[in-house]
Amino acid sequence: MNDKHLTYADSGVDIEKEETTIRALTKDMTYKRTGLGAPLTGIGHYAGLIDFGEYALALATDGVGSKVVIANEMKRWNTVGIDCVAMNVNDLLAIGAEPISFVDYLALEKHDEGFAAQIGEGLRKGAEISRMSIVGGETATLPDIIKGFDLAGTCLGMVKKEDIITGEKVRVGDAIVGIPAAGVHSNGYTLVRKIIERSSYSYHDPLPSDPSTTIGDELLIPTRIYMEVLDVIRECDVHGLAHITGSGLLKLKRVTELGFDFDDPIEPNDIFSFLQDEGNIDGLEMYRTFNMGMGFVIILPPEQAVKAAEMTGGKIVGRIVESGIKVSSLVIV
C-alpha cells in the first residue's frame, strides 16, 4: 500500500474538469426540433426523450471505458459486450423506458483471431438479458488513434409519456431502495488500474478475499442489468430512479435537488475494500468514484419500499431528506 491517498483525479480523471468540458460541449446545442420528434427533456438526465405521439422514444449512448484494458491483459473479451449493453440499458431504465433495440461501435487497432467472436458473445448475452434486438453497428480499424480497442453503443427505448420518471415526484420522507451491484461494473477503472499498477499485485494474482478467483477476473465481472426495475414501475408508485455509475453517489443529483440519507447502506463488495486498502483511498473518494456495492436506486413511498426491495433483491437503504448526500456519518456532498 502506498502512503499517499490516491484519488480519481490523480489517475487522470478529474470529475470537475469533465463537467466543465460537458458544459462547453453542450452550451451551443440550442436548436430543438418541433412536432413529432421534439425533445421532451433537456441534456443532462440519464437518457434523452423525444416526442413520438402516445409514446416517448428514449436514447442513451455509452461505452465500456478503460475496463477494456484489463480485458486485453487477461486475454478475455466475452464479458465486455455485456457491460456495453448494460451501461446503456440501465440509463434507459433510470427514466422508466423499456429498451427495444441497440447498435454498437467497435474501434480497434488491429484484427486478432477470436477477439471479435468474444465481443459478439457478450453483446448477444447482454441483448438477451435486456430483451431487445441488436439491429446494426459499425466497426472501424484505426491504428493511428486506437491502442487496443474501444467498445461503445447506443440504445433505443420507449415509454408512454404518462409513465416517464424524471424525479419531479420525489418528496422528503420517500424511501430509498438500493439494489446490489455485481462488482465494480464499468466505472472508475482508470483509478482501479492505477491502484493495481502501484501495488505489489498483478491482475493474474488471486484475490486475497477469494483465492479461487484472480483480481483480473473479479474486475471483469460484467455490469448487472436491472430489468426487474420495469416490474417495480408497473406495480409501485415509483418517484425516482438512479443508475449509480461514474462519480458514484454524485449521480443522484441528476434525479432531484433534495438530499439522500443512506443510514443503512448496502455492504460494499470485497473488491472495494481491497482497492481502498491498496490505493490508500479515503471513504469520501470511494463513494464519489464507485458504486460501492449499490448499482441502482429506486425512490418511492415508504409503504411500498418493502415490496420493491423484495422484487429486486435489494433493501431499504435510507430516505429522502431536505439536502445533501450522506452515507452513515460520511458526508458525500
From TrEMBL:
GO molecular function annotation: ATP binding; phosphoribosylamine-glycine ligase activity; phosphoribosylformylglycinamidine cyclo-ligase activity
InterPro entries: PurM-like_C_dom, PurM-like_C_sf, PurM-like_N, PurM-like_N_sf, PurM_cligase
Residues annotated as domain PurM-like C-terminal: 171-324
Alphabetized UniProt keyword annotations: ATP-binding, Cytoplasm, Ligase, Nucleotide-binding, Purine biosynthesis
GO cellular component: cytosol
SUPFAM superfamilies documented for this protein: PurM C-terminal domain-like, PurM N-terminal domain-like
Involved pathway(s): Purine metabolism; IMP biosynthesis via de novo pathway; 5-amino-1-(5-phospho-D-ribosyl)imidazole from N(2)-formyl-N(1)-(5-phospho-D-ribosyl)glycinamide: step 2/2
Protein name per its UniProtKB record: Phosphoribosylformylglycinamidine cyclo-ligase
Organism name: Methanolobus halotolerans
